[in-house]
Amino acid sequence: MYETGYREIKEKRLLGLLPKRATFIFITSIVVVAAIFFLFNMVDLKDPVGFFKQIAVTSVLASLGAGTADLLGKR
What we know:
Layout: E1 13-14, E2 18-19, H1 20-39, H2 48-72
Antiparallel strand pairs: 1-2
Helix pairs in contact: 1-2
């Protein structure tokens, strides 16, 4: 994640496998996307597969935006 050269950060890992920052950003984006869907009443709990698809597609874009902002950051 930090191969762009914008930051030099020693990467910490969860369970020796997943990068902590990237995992936290991804989980946060999924939670925020789900909360926004609930706030705007766009959730159809009768169709859980459709709801999963909505969250999956939207969270990819949210993760990209959050990851980019994290990489650029303040410096």
